[in-house]
Amino acid sequence: MNRVHFLAWSLAALGASVTMAATAAPAGGLSAAQVIDKNVAARGGLQAWRGVDTLVMSGQLDAGGKKDVKLPFVMTMKRPHKSRFELRFEGQTALQVYDGQQGWKVRPYLGRDEVTPYTPAEAQSAAASAELDGPLVDYARKGTKVALEGTESVEGHRAYKLKLTMKDGTERRLWIDATSFLELKIDGEARKLDGRPHKVAIYYRNYKPEHGLSVPHVLETVVEGVKPARRMTIDRVAVNQPIDDAAFAKPALASAKAAAH
C-alpha cells in the first residue's frame, strides 16, 4: 500500500464497473479467474470484504540503525480511497493523509514544521494504492485486467504468478500460494538509489483471522541490493470502527503536534 514507503499494501476501494480480462487455464491447471476466486475465498470471501467500510491497523515499523529502532504507527483507511498514516518517534508525529483526491504530509523528522501537499506523482500513486481490500477483491469493478503467467517458487512455496494491469495502465506482478491461495509477494514501485532504479518486492507473512477476514500481520519490504529488509508488524486490526471524514482532511500542525502526545 505504496505511498508510505514499505507499506506498498494492496488495499482497495470499489471501482467503476468495467470488462474483466483473464487468461485461459493452462492444460490441467487453473485460470487466472479461478485463482482469484480461491484467493478471495481464502481471505474471507467477497461479501465479507464488501462489508468493510473502515480498516485501522496499528503496530511497529522497523527503522533500522544500530539500535534497531521500532516506531509505532497507525494506518487508517475508509472507503472510498481515504487513508491516513501516522508514524510516531521522539515525541513527534509524521503524517501522510489522502482524502481521495488530494494528499498532504507533515515531516518533522526532516525539520519541516509545515504541511506539504503531495506532488503530482505522489497524488497519482496515492490514487492507485489507497485501496482497502487488496487488488484482487472486485478487481473487475476497479478496472484491473489480470493474466496468469504460470507458476514460480517463492521462498519454497509453489505460487501462481499473476500480471495485473491497473486502470491507469500500471503493471504489477502478484504471487499467490498454490496451496493456501493467500498472497505471498507483490512487486512494489522501484526506488531510485545511487542514481539508478532498484527493484522492490513486498512479502506477506503471518496471516491471522481478524473479524472473519484473513490478514497478514507482517509485511517485509526487500529492495534489490539493499540490506537488511524492512519489516512492518501489525499488532492490532479494527474493522468498521466509526471514523469521521475530518481525519482525512488537510492536517493542522496543532493537531499533528497534539497527536504526538
Automatic annotation (TrEMBL):
Residues 1-24 form the signal peptide. Pfam families: LolA_like (PF17131). InterPro entries: TP_0789-like (IPR033399). It comes from the Bacteria. Residues 145-253 form the Uncharacterized protein TP-0789 domain. Keywords: Signal. This is Uncharacterized protein TP-0789 domain-containing protein. It comes from Pandoraea terrae.
